[in-house]
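Purpose: get a first structural picture of the assembly so the mutagenesis plan has something to point at.
Setup: four entries, given in the order below. No constraints added.
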Amino acid sequence: MTQAERLRVAPHQEQVSSIRSIVPRYTAIRRFSEELCANLGDEDFVAQSMPDASPLKWHLAHTTWFLERVVLERFDPEYEPIDPTYAYLFNSYYNALGDRHARPLRGVLTRPTVPQVREYRDSVDASVLRLLDSVQDMQRVELVRLLEIGLNHEQQHQELMLTDVKHLFSLNAMLPRYRQPLPVEPAAPGALGWVEVQEGVYSIGSDSGSFAFDNEKPRHRVFLESYALADRLVTNAEYLEFVEDGGYLKPELWLEVGWSTVQQPGWESPLYWHRRDGGWVEFTLGGERELVPCEPVSHISYLEADAFARWAGARLPTEIEWEVAAARLPVEGNFVSSGRFHPSAAPRSGGPGLRQMFGDLWEWTASAYSPYPGFQPEPGVLAEYNGKFMCDQLVLRGGSCATSQDHVRASYRNFFYPPDRWQFSGIRLAKNRR
Amino acid sequence: MTQAERLRVAPHQEQVSSIRSIVPRYTAIRRFSEELCANLGDEDFVAQSMPDASPLKWHLAHTTWFLERVVLERFDPEYEPIDPTYAYLFNSYYNALGDRHARPLRGVLTRPTVPQVREYRDSVDASVLRLLDSVQDMQRVELVRLLEIGLNHEQQHQELMLTDVKHLFSLNAMLPRYRQPLPVEPAAPGALGWVEVQEGVYSIGSDSGSFAFDNEKPRHRVFLESYALADRLVTNAEYLEFVEDGGYLKPELWLEVGWSTVQQPGWESPLYWHRRDGGWVEFTLGGERELVPCEPVSHISYLEADAFARWAGARLPTEIEWEVAAARLPVEGNFVSSGRFHPSAAPRSGGPGLRQMFGDLWEWTASAYSPYPGFQPEPGVLAEYNGKFMCDQLVLRGGSCATSQDHVRASYRNFFYPPDRWQFSGIRLAKNRR
Amino acid sequence: MTQAERLRVAPHQEQVSSIRSIVPRYTAIRRFSEELCANLGDEDFVAQSMPDASPLKWHLAHTTWFLERVVLERFDPEYEPIDPTYAYLFNSYYNALGDRHARPLRGVLTRPTVPQVREYRDSVDASVLRLLDSVQDMQRVELVRLLEIGLNHEQQHQELMLTDVKHLFSLNAMLPRYRQPLPVEPAAPGALGWVEVQEGVYSIGSDSGSFAFDNEKPRHRVFLESYALADRLVTNAEYLEFVEDGGYLKPELWLEVGWSTVQQPGWESPLYWHRRDGGWVEFTLGGERELVPCEPVSHISYLEADAFARWAGARLPTEIEWEVAAARLPVEGNFVSSGRFHPSAAPRSGGPGLRQMFGDLWEWTASAYSPYPGFQPEPGVLAEYNGKFMCDQLVLRGGSCATSQDHVRASYRNFFYPPDRWQFSGIRLAKNRR
Amino acid sequence: MTQAERLRVAPHQEQVSSIRSIVPRYTAIRRFSEELCANLGDEDFVAQSMPDASPLKWHLAHTTWFLERVVLERFDPEYEPIDPTYAYLFNSYYNALGDRHARPLRGVLTRPTVPQVREYRDSVDASVLRLLDSVQDMQRVELVRLLEIGLNHEQQHQELMLTDVKHLFSLNAMLPRYRQPLPVEPAAPGALGWVEVQEGVYSIGSDSGSFAFDNEKPRHRVFLESYALADRLVTNAEYLEFVEDGGYLKPELWLEVGWSTVQQPGWESPLYWHRRDGGWVEFTLGGERELVPCEPVSHISYLEADAFARWAGARLPTEIEWEVAAARLPVEGNFVSSGRFHPSAAPRSGGPGLRQMFGDLWEWTASAYSPYPGFQPEPGVLAEYNGKFMCDQLVLRGGSCATSQDHVRASYRNFFYPPDRWQFSGIRLAKNRR
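Result (structure tokens, whole complex):
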């Protein structure tokens, strides 16, 4: 089975596991993490390209640590870890779970080795499956609930594995390829259209029916003035116009922090664009290739998205505007299971309607990542999962070409800092309507 | 006339100047800036205590520069500045107005001297008053409008002069006094009460009737779930309980960025608190004195306000919640004109109702400083006044003991970064209601 | 009496005070510190332009603090300081004398005011003179010895006052003048000549006859291979050739740390040179003026001096080579008493012989600042005066146009870090001889 | 053949290769680099633990790059590199050889993989051996001369490989072992003795007879006052006394830069010491073990060596004093070929005479790393090998337990920065004699 085939059968089930369905779902998602590294050498698992990124090996071990500390130790007081040092090495940021290895130094952890990490994964998986067999009734409901969080957590790290290896490879003058070169597909997304939404009181957020993180709750009412949303993502061609118009040289287009950011070296275009022989190339997980005009512009910071929107006479949507517009759309698009690992051009418009709302690229919103009215963090150690990051970050919506389709939904809130751009992030415009 | 007397007659008029009233208002506000420095030595005008603060002399010159560049040069094409270098030295952050002296180095500007800055002020004032006499009709309306912005700008810097000189003096082991020692007034604010607001669609923001900054507009509708607001500010006594309960040592109370901030030296209490002989003292503009339990806790960062609220089982209000509750209250309280320059204990509660909503201390809200729906920046160079800072900051409401009473209003949005605490900032709690 | 006249009568006596001569010498040197600030405004005393520099006021107070803590408190156990806080504020780096105000924050000390610092000086001076009257015999010898260190210490700070105010003014776009514009004097120093010294065993360092710092002792023998020393300082014209030959762009000319230093902004010429309209100007204590080719190039770091020497096919002398050559020369030249505060062109050569060895500019040597064989630090707190800085610094020799003539001698060792260049520092070349 | 056996046969031949002997010497030294990594996993080759250290893989590739760029490309104009990107990736600091990958980011180079680096080594080795067969006469002499530099260069990196992997492993809470646990050997080095040297004119430096780096030349005369040198290295027991006497807490013992350094976390003992259960353990290449009192204290910075010497009432020797004393001793001791990779206790003294002068630990001297009188850098690109680092560093002498015996000699000058302590560095005391 080739990598592409393997990826094509990647997990895409219901978002919440029943007691019956959890085992195959667990197995599939855990296996998928390892499939994502199948074509890499052991050396590739070790390196950390910047403090924000982590080594692949660390992702594989940390997601396992999560299951061990959050699930196994809770249900089995006698549980004995395969190595007590792992509790220290693979804690990310949970103060309630003790001290930890310094984040910017994750790249020094050459041990445990890759095979040892695989052994760790196997051992924890065996314990989890054994536990599922043995727990009773009510406990089982809670176990499945926690495992579901663990699996969603693993899916988040699967996405980070892809963005982190992309960043890592981009710093290497050998320009390594994670996958085969990307084919250029003929596409003609057409001119940008606008979809209007009327003013009114709407509800956003997740109700309790299906899995959602605590930060998506509670469902609550909001008032929206009328607005319009662009019917597709901004393309490379459109962004290139901004670059060639001197967009990075005009202070009036930028937020203050944006302007000081683009004074730094390396900020005259999106993260992975480079000038070569008078044209532009883009580094992708399939290697470096010429910029494809009709594809959506990606690896954009909030600061750039905001400046582009201003240049374009528009603005970014709020997360509320985004969610209200997305609420009734099916969760379909270019996800990780395509094996493309790169955004695709929007399909030609077949009339009014939003394209690319899910998959392809996370879409920056103008909304600060804040608690919803009535927000209650998960009880226990998982209180640290989301709530404590609700400062200085902005919400992105919709998932990307590195996201699992069954991981995302209309109410899903991703969040990053304004200058971050190593994620698969892009731009959807909005505007006021009168 | 003593300083206290002079301050008591400080400006407190209508918020918008008519063509007739502008002259006395202009004169009074400009004079007030100089009165605020009346008891200081020339040395005190020079120093910059940190990059966020500015020397007093710089404030006096920059507010003058603002009038020169934004008003005089616009109306009088032949206007000749008293010194062309000032255009460079006293530009704060206006890219449209050219290069400028580096912000963190404002403290090296020993020249122009204090008398030269006074001369600069006099010269610009004379030109402004001459201009007011000479412009005609429609032009005059626009001139008064711009002058009104210039005067509000000056009032903002008057507040900064007080907070900057306080910070400066606090770093000096001689503990200089800006004013006489503060009397301790008997007060008993009583237990914290709560004022409830019902869910519904409300309007916030400024309509066009009176002066407001662009960031307060347009007035627009919002939906609010029901909530309750504390009826007064959090006191020193209440905050001390938090400190003594180990509040600064419990990671579960803090945002991630808060926790990393309080690992730094100097973050075990509010900015100006110090332990002395087993007790606590507080540095004030009247020198160091014992902590007064019934006064509101001040010089609090957002990070601390948020942690305290969590510890107290409450939360911070959003700016929307604050404004809706404040909308019908008179703008009354402990403002700069009291000459106290320090928050006062809340008056004893006379029944249900909000106390201390205006004056005393700016109140941190949980709302990111973002554009309102339909926000339009001021045209021209003043577009840089507010809009470009709408990132990474949080909104504070209500004004402080360093604010001019005729400068603030229910819709007024102040904004600072989460760790900032050299402003007169405090805490009002909120909570959900069911 | 004009400033120039006052300066002309500045101290120039014996280097060691007898018990009789100490009083007029003390009075003259102390007065000279204040004369150096006579034309400045109070604002100019406050600012600190960088962590390496100090405010003028701080220099005036610290030299007084030195007398108080090192002399007065030692001889008079009942001595009561005028303000106990000064012990903390004006300690520079003496761990044995307690905690101190943070060095980079000296610019926040607006208090004590300039008049208060003058009062502090007067008070300490009165105590010193009283003490001189009252101590007996043997004690008096030790008192004069310590006062002599205190006076030499003050002379070092007099030089720093000039270099620090020059640096401060250079950062101000108003380009303030410390003194009248410098006249350009006709001069023709002629081509560079070389003075040879034969190989042999020489003695360097100070013997006990006259005042010297501990770092100049003991006198000891060294072996020197034959060498030649340039007969004057490198001129602006010669250095300009280096600049225009792309000297700052050729890595092969630079030490590793030099090359990384000149990649930073502001390192394409000596510190105070600036390009204006195709030519070069230089900022001086007399304001900005056109570069004078025949004057010696000044405000040069060791890194630049070393690169220039390599470009010129020469090298820098060691401090041993310098001292052996200087040992028999009279200590004459362009010192602070000239009131010029700027290096002068070398006099036309009147035949073989070294010019400009004393005064004009400190001359970088290739010698690390290390202890001499048998070095013994001063006993007591003064052990911290020199010894603890013997790491990472290089020795400069000969004094400058900001040095007092009676402060310097052939054995005198000044020391700064390789990138430092705000001192009056220049280049004398050396080469091997075969 | 076990690792220990392999190491026992490690290269120990003449220091300069004849035309005949170069081939086996080349083969042995090149093979030794790979043997040093024989027990490591591929992951261990990738990580960079700090900017000063490099990944093992990088060392293996860079030493190969050196042969390619400095030797092969010079003799064979048609030489085609196996991968042109390597010229960029594996250049360390040679400006004359073009741009290079940023030093602090060497740990991101997961590609080329370990097998690819081995292939690179094999390919270059084959080309070198082919070249040796084909060049004629005079060219051959120059070829052997450059190869000799290349081999000495490789030996330097072999030492770095050991110190870098030790540092890397030390940061990992798993405390990996590079070799078997170290046996504790009974030893009793006895009390410290002193060996005296009389004053006089001596010659130091290398004459042209055998291989030496440019920085060891020319041989030249120096004058030395009489002095005494400790007859062995300072032991752990002696250093522990210093620690327990509060040595790290007494400012009077430290250089200024030393005192500010030991205010930082992690500076209360030598680099690899840690307190455990009231005692001290030390991290070694054989894992963590209890501190062995009679072994020499290692991983000491210059700053600590200097403070210890002051505490002990002694001082560090100059490099001249060291070399004069070492000149007639045989180059014998505990070198890398012992396979111990750790310093050994000094043998019991058998009468007056210096012990441990070679091997065990590099010995800090008080001498700045400066050019000798008459220093001439190697011509061509190798001018960058030594000369440009002659600033801010101090000389160490004698080699260590990680040095090849045939690499070091009495005139050999190693150099590091004052705070560096990840090398095998220790302390030999000196004192004045009268």
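Chain A has ten helices and 14 strands.
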